[in-house]
Amino acid sequence: MPRFIINRVAHALLSVWAIATVTFFLAYLAPGDPAQLRFEHSASPAQLAEWRHEHGLDLAPGARYVRYLSGLLHGDMGRPFSSDAAPPVLQYLCQRFPNTALLASAAIAIALIFGLGAGIAAALKHNTWIDRILMVTILAGVSIPNFVLGPVAIAIFAVNLHWFPVAGWGSPEYIVMPAVVLALRPAALIARMTRSSMLEVLRQDYIRAARARGLSPFRVIGVHALKNAFLPVLTSAGVSFGYLLSGSFVVETIFHIPGVGEASFASIGQRDYSLIQGATVLLATIFVTINLVIDLLYGLIDPRVRAGKQEARQ
Fold first, then answer.
1. Which of 131-145, 160-174, 251-265, 267-281 shows the lowest per-residue confidence on average (mean pLDDT)?
2. What's the CA gap between 183 and 153, in Å, rounded?
3. Which of 10, 186, 207, 302 has the fewest other C-beta atoms within 10 Å?
4. Distance (Å, rounded) from C-alpha 197 to C-alpha 228?
5. Once rounded to an integer, what is the mean pLDDT over residues 124-143?
6. CA 103 to CA 238: how far, in whole Å?
7. In the chain, which ranges are continuous DSSP H helix?
């Protein structure tokens, strides 16, 4: 087990380093001058040169990369380019991250409730009209993008029905509509995975034996079947939660939620490399950490995972 943990942690750290490196060089190669965008021709060439020197933009690529990695190791992601009065990037992102985390947590809770329920119902009613309706709904949930669903939800539930606010953040009613929009795709993925896994488990001999012993349907499904079918669902839910934390750019922008996604989206147009790199590294670290926790839980729940990895190394 210790070797398994060390191996997974090493892979996670390597992934974060690779993402940070790719992000740095993509930002370096991106067209546009942050200094020109920052001052919009209101500064002299000397002031522009001084500002570039202050932010390290006049250094050679290798020196900038070393400075960038050294700052990451010390928890320093630099300062945003958009405003000299803004707090450091890490502090700025940490101020916004609770909003993103709250939105993602609400979305994954909704996705689990509806995804598990729909997947179990589709598996129990396999090849019936209930199964077909649920599968069509699941396919629609996977297919409809957030940038389409968000404005449609605003038009129907906020503008016409006046059930929810159009956009903003604060009281609980502001969370419902963006959380549901964000939860649709992961709910569909969880439902599809639950259905597939439950169908496989329900065909096993021990399920037939449990039914033959006269156990109640709730005990057969809820205790024996769902417990063994939940491992693939756990992986799907964990990956979906990571995507929700790191991929809510569109939803946060549409609903004007002051989270990491909205800040990252705005920083792209401003060529704010420090904020782009900081947000990418932060969200990548969170995503990789979630996947690491899932791998470790998978290994603890199912010892065959550890055994299989050990046999592969031998």
1. 267-281
2. 13
3. 10
4. 9
5. 83
6. 15
7. 2-29, 34-39, 45-54, 61-73, 89-124, 129-143, 146-153, 173-202, 205-212, 217-219, 226-246, 249-254, 260-269, 273-301, 303-313
Q: Taking the C-alpha atoms of 7, 11, 12 and 16 in order, what is their torsion angle to the nearest 10 degrees?
A: 150
Cα separation, 48 vs 27, in Å, equals 19
Residue 98, both tokens:
């609770």
**Nearby residues of 242 by Cβ (< 8 Å), 6 or more positions away:** 286, 287, 290, 291
pLDDT value at residue 312:
46
| Cβ 79 vs Cβ 86: under 8 Å | yes
Tokens 């509806």, residue located: 114
Q: Higher-confidence residue: 57 or 17?
A: 17
Query: What number of CA atoms fall less than 13 Å from residue 109's CA on the CB side?
Result: 9
Least confident interval from 66-80, 132-146, 214-228: 214-228
State how far the alpha carbon of 205 is from the alpha carbons of 122, 169, 202, in Å.
21, 51, 8
Residue identified by tokens 């932060």 is 282
